[in-house]
Amino acid sequence: MKKLTFLIALILGVTAVYGQDFLKKSKVSGSFQIDGNYYWPDNGIGITKEDVGGNKFGANGFGKLQYQLGNFTAGVRFEAYTNTSAMSGFDSRLKGMGVANYFATYDNGTIGVTVGDIYDQFGNGLIFRTYEEWTLGYDNSLRGIRAIYRPWNGVTVKGLYGKQRYYWASYAEERGLVRGVDGEWDINQSISALNDAKFRATIGGSFVSKYEQVEDYVDPNMVTYKIPQNVAAYAGRMNLGYGRFGFSAEYARKINDPLPLNNFIYREGQELLASLSYSQKGLGMVLQVKRVDNMKFQSKWQTEDMKDLNIGFIPPINYTHTHSLPSMFSYATQPLGEMGAQFQVNYTIPKNTALGGKYGTKLAFNFSQVNDIKRDSIMVDGVNTLNQPGTLGYTSPFFAVGDRMFYRDFNFEIEKKLSKKWNLTLMYINLYYDMETIEGHPKAEPVKAHFAFGELIYKINRKHSVRLELQHMWDNIGKDYEIEEGYEDNYIKRGNWMAFLLEYTIAPKWFVSIADKYNYGNPIADNRDHYFTGSIGFIKDQTRIALSGGRQSQGLVCVGGVCREVPASSGVSLTLTTSF
Question: How far is Cα of residue 250 from the mean position of the Cα atoms in its chain?
C-alpha cells in the first residue's frame, strides 16, 4: 500500500506542475489478463483424485496501468497467483498477490531517469537482461535506479543499480546487488556525412557486476571453497552493414564464479554471438554462430531453480517451432557450455513463372545444430583435474566443437497460395534432441525423429474461413522398445504421434476449434493416449476471451530458450485479456 500511495502522490505532484494542461496532455493506458483452470481426475492419462486433491482450481491474473504526462511516465502492475500448484507447472513460490512492479520515469531526450522496477538489456543481453514472460511465470526485473544520458546524436550511456525480483521475497532478503554501465555509439547518426551512407556502423560496450555477502562454502567432506563476493562481467559489440549485407558480433567474458551448477570450478566464462546476413527482394539469408563456456551469471549464489535470478541471457539461435508435435522438443540453452550454428534461407519464387505460378511460392530452409564444447583436462602434479571442484576445471580450445550433440534441426517449408480461396503450407522437420541433457532425464535415449506438417486454409468468403492442420511424428523409439525398469518417465512422450486441428473463424470476432494429439506408437501401452481439446474464442476491439477444455500432454514450455516443465492435465481453462 505504501508503494501505491507513493506512486499516486508522485503522479499528483507532476500533474500539479503542469496545471490546467493536465486533462489535455495526460494519457492513461493499461492491460489486464486472467488465466483460470479447473482440473478433474482423468484415469486415462494417469491423473487420479489424489493428484488433483484440493487443487482443482487455480487462477493467475495481472493488471497494468500506465500514466504519461509530457516527459513523465509512471506505471504499476498488480499480480495475483492463487493456488499455483494447480496451474500447469507454475512455481509454487509465485503464490500470492500484491503490487509486483512499479516505476516512474522522466526522459527529455537527453537525460532519462527511472526509479522502481526496470526492464532493460545491454546489447544482446549476454551479461544483462531483465524481462518478464507471463507464460513461464518468469520475472527478473531490477528494482533500483537507472540513468540514461545522450550527449550527442547516436551516443547513449546507461547506468543502473538495484536488486532483482525473486518471486515475492522481500528486497531486504539476501541476494546480490547488481550494478552496470553500458555505452553505444551509432556512428552514422553522429556524423552527418554518413547519415545516408551505404556503410553503417554501431559499436558498444558493457560492464556489469554483482555484489553478494556470502560465506565460504564447506562441502560435506569438510573441504572449503572460497566464494567471491564480487563477480564482474564485461562485453563488447559491433553492428556493421553495407548495402544488402549485415554483420554483428558480441563477445562477453565473466570472471571466475564457482557455483553448485558448475561443480565449484574457478574457470572464467566467455560467450560469443555473431551473425552474417544478406537480403534483397524475394531473398533473405542469415548465418548465426554462438559459443558459450561457463556463463551462468546470477545475482544469488545458490538458487532452487537454474532459471532464477539470471543477470545474463543466452539467446537461442535455433528455429522456434510453434506446431504442437515438434514444440514438445524445444531446445533449452546450456549455460555451462554449447556451440551452435544456424543457417536460414527464405526465397520467394516470383509470380507468373513456371514454379511460382500466379501468386508466387514461398520457400524456407533452416538448419541449426548445437553441440557441447570440447573440454581438455588440466594436469596438476600428475593428477587429472578435469572439472574437479576447487580447480580451474578444464581448458577449451575456442573453435573446437565437442563430440556430444545436444540438438539438431533441419526443416524445409513451402507455402503456396493455390487460388484466391485456397492456401497450402507443407513442412518437413528432421530433429535430434538430447533428452538426457535438455530435460535432465538420466539414461534417456536421444530423440531422432521426422515430422511432417500440412496446413490447408479455405476462405469461404470475406469473413468466414476454415483451417485444417495435420501433423505426424516418426520416432526412433517404437512400440517394441525394451525399457529399463525405473526409467519409465523417460518415455512418456516418446514413440510415433499423429495430430490434427480443425478451426473455423468468423472474422474478426469468433473462432472455434477442435484438436487431437495421439501417442499411438508409445513403447508403454498405458501411454498411448488421445489428447483431445476444444476451444472457442471471442474478440472485440482489444478484448479477447477464450474457453478451452480437454487434455494437456506432459512436456516443456519454452520461450526464448528458457523452459518450464508442464505436467499432464485434464480440465477446462478460461483466458481473458483486454487493453486500453
Answer: 19
pLDDT value of residue 30: 96
In a domain, 538, yes or no: no
**Residue 198 sits in which domain range?**
108-315
Q: What is the C-alpha separation between 373 and 83, in angstroms, rounded?
A: 41
- Cα 85 from Cα 94, distance rounded (Å): 10
How far is the C-alpha of 327 from the C-alpha of 306, rounded, in Å? Answer: 21
The pLDDT value given to residue 2 = 58
**Residue 386 and residue 305 in one domain:** no
Give me the pLDDT at residue 375, please: 96
Residue 460 belongs to a domain: yes
| Single residue among 505, 528, 551 that ends a domain in this structure | 528
DSSP string, 44-71: GGTB-HHHHTT--EEEEEEEEEEEEETT
Of 362, 364, 352, 487, the C-alpha closest to 428 is 364
CA angle 433, 555, 434 (to 5 degrees): 15
Q: How far apart are CA 578 and CA 539, in angstroms?
A: 10
Check whether the bond before 446 is cis (ω within 30° of 0): no
In a domain, 274, yes or no: yes
Handedness of CA 107, 112, 117, 118 (dihedral sign): positive
Residues 196, 281, 409, CA angle at the centre, nearest 5°? 115
- DSSP annotation of 420 reads S
> Are 264 and 348 in a shared domain?
no
| 308 and 436 part of one domain | no
Within 8 A by CB and 6+ apart from 243, the residues are: 198
Contacts of 93 (CB under 8 A, 6+ apart): 167, 168, 304
Residue 448, classed as helix, strand or coil, is: strand
Kind and range of the H or E run holding 7: helix 2-18
Among the listed ranges 19-23, 467-471, 527-531, which one has the minimum average pLDDT value?
A: 19-23
Strands (E), 10-165: 27-39, 57-69, 72-82, 96-107, 111-118, 132-133, 138-139, 142-149, 155-164
Give the residue from 528, 558, 573 where a domain finishes. Answer: 528
Please give the C-alpha separations between residue 485 and each of 38, 491, 564, in angstroms, as whole numbers: 34, 12, 26
Tell me: pLDDT of 143 over 90.
yes
H or E segment to which residue 108 belongs = none
Phi, psi of 302 (to 5 degrees): -120, 125
Pair (263, 375) in one structural domain: no
C-alpha cell at 246: 549485415
Quote the CA–CA distance of 346 and 366 in Å, as a whole number: 9
311 and 345 assigned to the same domain: no
Mean pLDDT of all residues in 206-222: 92
Q: Is residue 64 part of a domain?
A: no
**Region of residue 18 (left: phi > 0; alpha: psi -120 to 50; beta: else):** alpha
The model's pTM is 0.91
Number of helices (H), then strands (E), belonging to the chain: the values are 5, 32
pLDDT tens-digit profile of 320-361? 998 999 999 999 999 999 999 999 999 999 999 988 999 999
Answer yes or no: do 281 and 357 share one domain: no
* Domain count of the fold of the chain: 2
